[in-house]
Specification:
Blueprint (H helix, E strand, L loop, with lengths): L14 H25 L5 H11 L8 H7 L7 H10 L3 E5 L7 E5 L1 H21 L5 H15 L1
Antiparallel strand pairs: 1-2
Amino acid sequence: MSSKNENKKGVNPNLPFETINNLLSAGNLVYEKSAEHLKQFALSVEQYNVLLILHNLDGEPANLSTIQNSMISKMSNTTRLVEKLRLKGLLTREQSQENRRKVEINITEKGILLLKEIEETQILKEKEIVKNLTKRDMLTLNKLLNKLKS
């Protein structure tokens, strides 16, 4: 017996809507749990993302465009995020000596130490978020999400 949401061919015509709604709900859940976790370190999810981007550059300076292109949320106000992190002493922002129009952004030692402090509890938080998924579930989910993004 088919459900009332299925047509005669057994296909749910609302499946794209349901899929997108589930993705948005799951994404929002993960965002809220991440934001709640990072609040104890006085960071937003977006600020944490900026620090990770800079840390992954292994000491190479970044510019605003590089950071913006690497952000999870492309709608983030990178200039404002960088300034807030600079005021906290977690990164530096300096004009390039070679090109005065270019701004070089680097993570500070204080920023690196904060990331190390967060890392321990972050791993536990990530495991908590995906606790209902098997390793196989996570591999499949990642494969599907990457397929969706491409």
